[in-house]
Amino acid sequence: MTDASLSLTVWGCRGSIPAPGAATAGFGGDTSCYELSAAGRSLVVDCGSGMRELGDRLMREGPPDALDVLLTHPHFDHLIGLGFFAPLIARRTAVTLWTALPVEQVEDALGRLYSPPLWPVRIPGDYAVPVRALPAGPAGFGPFLVSAVPLNHPGGATGFRIEAAGRSLCIITDHEHGAPEIDARLARAVAGADLMLYDAPWSAEEYRRRVGWGHSSWREACGLAVAAGVARTLIVHHSPTRTDADLSRAEAELGAGRGRIGFARDGMRITL
Ligand SMILES: [Zn+2]
Ligand SMILES: [Zn+2]
C-alpha cells in the first residue's frame, strides 16, 4: 500500500452464521468484517467472526492504540467477532463502535450478547467498548470520509460510502431492494464508486421465496451497479449453505471474467 491509495481487506463476507468446512474454504466461512486502509491507518466495518483473524494479524504486527469500527447494524452475525478480537481482550486497543442507528439499540444488543448466561464476559463491563452516534456525514476518521445511507432491513441497517486518497468504496450490507425511496437514496450514495460491496445471497428465483427477509439478489446487485455507474462490484453476505462450487458457477454466469462484478472471498485484498 502506498499513502496515495485506499485498500480493502475482506476478513469475512459470509452471511447469517459462520460456515466453515472444506466446501466453503475457497470463498471463506467468516461473517461480516471489512478493513479499509489508507495513509497507514485502518478503519473497520462490522464485527462479524472475521474480526477474530483481523485481531490476530494486528497482534502480530503491533496493534493500534485505538480503532474505529463502523457498525452496519447489531444482528449477531455482525457482532460475534468482537469478543474474540485479541487487541481488545489483551487491552492493547481501545475500540469505538460508530452507528447511524439509535445508540441504545446497539448498546442493548451488545449488552445482551456479551453477558451471562450467553457469554461469561461482559461488553461493556469487563471491556469498555463505547458506542457513539456517527456524525451526520460526511464524517472524518483520519484520512477517511464516511457518509451513511439507510438501508431496508429488519430492525434497520446502514450502508457506508467511504472516501480516501481520491478513491471511493461503498459497503452495502444488509439490504433488501424494493423500497423506492431507500433505493433512490442508495443509488445516489453509491454513484460512481470505484468499488461497491453489495449484500446479495440469492438468485432472482430464490429471492422470490424470501421477500421481506432483508436481503437482495445477484440480479439487483448488477442492476444497481450499472444504473449507478459503479466501476467494480463484489457481492457479499453469501448464504451459509452456498458452497465454493455454487459460488464459482454463479460468478461465471454473472460474467465475472470481465472483472466488473464478482463474489467477495475472505482474505481478498484490493487496492484502489
Ligand atoms: Zn447479516
Ligand atoms: Zn442483518
**If you compute it from the alpha carbons, what radius of gyration comes out, rounded to the nearest whole angstrom?**
17 Å
* Gross CATH architecture: 4-Layer Sandwich
Poorly predicted regions? none
CATH topology: Metallo-beta-lactamase, Chain A
Bound molecules: zinc ion
Q: Report the oligomer.
A: single chain
Question: With helices defined by DSSP (H or I, 4 residues minimum), what is the helix count?
Answer: 7
What best-fitting shape do the alpha-carbon axes yield? globular
Sheet with the most strands, sense and barrel status: 7 strands, mixed
As laid out across the biggest beta sheet, the strand order is 6-5-4-3-2-1-14
Strand content: 25-35%
Number of DSSP strands? 14
Report what the structure shows.
Strand 4 (66-70), helix 2 and strand 5 (94-99) form a beta-alpha-beta unit. This protein has a 7-stranded mixed β-sheet. Strands 7-8-9-10-11-12-13 form a 7-stranded mixed β-sheet. 23% of the residues lie in helices and 26% in strands. The chain is an alpha/beta fold. The protein has one domain (7-271): Metallo-beta-lactamase, Chain A, CATH 3.60.15. It has helices at 50-61, 86-89, 103-113, 180-190, 204-208, 218-227, 244-253; strands spanning 7-12, 33-38, 41-45, 66-70, 94-99, 131-133, 139-141, 144-151, 157-164, 167-172, 195-199, 233-236, 261-263, 269-271. The relative contact order is 0.17. The structure holds zinc ion (2 copies). One zinc ion binds at residues 73, 75, 153, 174, 214.
